[in-house]
Design brief:
4 strands; 5 helices; about 10% strand; mainly alpha; two-stranded antiparallel ribbon; about 65% helix
Length: about 120
Amino acid sequence: IGKAFGKHKLAPEISPKKTVEGLAGGILFAVVGCIILGMIAQYASDLQVNYAALVVIGLIGSILGLLGDLVASLMKRQCGVKDFGNVLPGHGGMLDRFDSVILIAPFIYFAVYVAEEFGFFILR
């Protein structure tokens, strides 16, 4: 979305290719993806899915992914390097492939814990 429609830079001093339009597209696709996965889970099992909770998970997860990417980009800028490594040529290194996951993974872990413990997200 950002490459096709991006006109407004999100954080040009940290990550010059990120756009506000790309952020909006990322949020939209994350929320829609969570809803689709919920529909699949509900269809494939006897679970009744709380779609409002999935929308919140998609929204928060997409924002945390962006923040993880921006934090990694800021670290690279402060250290004066372009990439975190050269294991994957043209991809910026292994950490560049997983920088978004650094903040999303603990959030999803917590969300699954709450879902299991308190039954907030997925109902039986």
